[in-house]
Structures are given as structure tokens and as C-alpha cells.
Amino acid sequence: MDHIPQHLAIIMDGNGRWAQKRHLPRIVGHQKGVETVRRVVEECCSLGIKHLTLYAFSSENWGRPADEVAALMGLLAKYLTSELKMLLSNRVRLNVIGETAKLPDNIRQTLEGAVERTRDNDSMTLTLALSYGARDEILRTCQQLAGRVAAGEIAPSDIDEELFSDALDTAGIPDPDLLVRTSGEMRISNFLLWQLAYTELYFSNKFWPDFDRDELHEAIREFGRRQRRFGLTSEQVPDKAEQGGHH
Length: 247
Ligand code: IPE
Ligand code: IPE
Ligand code: MG
Prior knowledge:
Elements: E1 7-11, H1 15-21, H2 26-47, E2 51-58, H3 66-82, H4 84-89, E3 92-97, H5 105-117, E4 124-132, H6 134-150, H7 161-167, E5 178-181, E6 200-203, H8 213-225, H9 240-243
Parallel strand pairs: 1-2, 1-5, 2-4, 3-4, 5-6
Helix pairs in contact: 1-2, 2-3, 3-5
This protein binds 3-methylbut-3-enyl trihydrogen diphosphate (2 copies) and magnesium ion.
């Protein structure tokens, strides 16, 4: 693996089906999924990935049965407490995107605490997408920019790609190089619609609890075989050999 993505984004899908296949409650799949998160975070750190973004809870997931939503919130609170040590020892900075105002107070406070405790870490930024929907993010950004126009701070023509990107939840984070979705579904499900414009997409058939080191390595190897052209011709972009790795 000589081409490591600088920013890997993952749609962690298939926890429920993993459990249902075993005649277990869906929440058991979510519990197993937390173990995969731990493994993937640690592996991404050792691979030298600088940004890992995990889709953990979508704005649409609020519509699931109340007991599943409550169980997911409980798991999140537990994860943030139990994994803080691991994040600190791996020098991981925690970041959150999404409409966090909708999260229960105790979770928001735990999150803020963990973000604060890890803010000076520089090995990898782990961004959790929580209560996140890309359309919601884009609309909140438009409202914010429209407010700045109305206040006379900026002119409509000042709104270019850079200004817009800097007003999104993901401000300061480069666009993902590689997006992985597990569970065999081939859709984006309202994740990072703006940021994924030129991201390489990779779909794994494994359910998230079964997504292991080998699967992650295979996704990264496949990424290394792709030629990213960004709208140009093959001849215009540097050869794989000349491109060099990111680390
Ligand atoms: C992903 O697993 C976790 C969340 C969306 C919170 P799912 O819960 O979507 O599992 P499936 O897709 O129903 O199998
Ligand atoms: C996407 O998975 C959201 C997360 C992984 C958090 P979903 O299971 O909610 O997506 P759909 O409903 O299959 O599109
Ligand atoms: Mg799903």
C-alpha cells in the first residue's frame, strides 16, 4: 500500500443485518460495531491516515424506533468515555459534525469534553458525523452566509467554493480521498454531498461488525490502483509512480 488516502470517510452500515442474521437484537450489532470502530481507528492511526470521518448517526436515523435511538445514544456515551484513553494515547483529535444541538444534553457535554481534551493531538483527526445530514449541513451553511450578506459583511459574489467550504461543518478538513461503505449498499445516504465531489468510492460487501483489517487494506489498495483525473485527461495527470504517497 503505497498510496494512503489523506482523508478516509466511512459509512458504517450493516450492524442491524449482522445481528438479524444471527437472530440477535439489532442493538447487539451496534455493540459489535463499536469494536470495529476501535480497530479501524487504531489501524488508520498506524497507517498514517490524517483524517478519518465516520458516519455514526444520520439526521434520518432519528426516525428509527425510539428504543433503537436510545440504545445508540447510550452506546455513544459509553464509547466516548471508554475510548478517551485510546484516543489520547494514539494522539487522536476528536471532532464532530452534524446538528449536535439535537443530541441529548449529557452526550453533548461528554462530546464537548472529549473534543476539548484531545484538541492538541496531531496524529489523526477523527470526525464523528452525528445527527448529520448533508442537505441539512448545506442549508445551515446557506442560512449563515445569507445572514452575513444581509449584515453587509460580504457580497453575494464573494461566495465562492473556498468561502462556502469554510462555512460548512467540515471547515478546515480536506475533502475525503476515499469513501468506503460497508454492507453492500451502493448509495450515499445524505453523507458529505458537497465534499464527496471527487472522492473515490469503494463498496464492501461485509457488514460493519465483520469489517476487519484485511478489508480496510483491500479498500486502500484499490484506492491506490485508481487514477484520479478531476475532469482532466489521463495524459494531463501525473503517473501513479510519479505521484508518490501521502506520507
Ligand atoms: C449502521 O447500521 C449504523 C447506523 C445507521 C446507526 P444499520 O443500523 O443501518 O444496519 P442495517 O443497515 O439495518 O443492517
Ligand atoms: C447511513 O446508513 C447512516 C449511517 C451509517 C450512520 P443507513 O442505514 O441509515 O442508510 P440507508 O437508510 O440504508 O440509506
Ligand atoms: Mg443501514
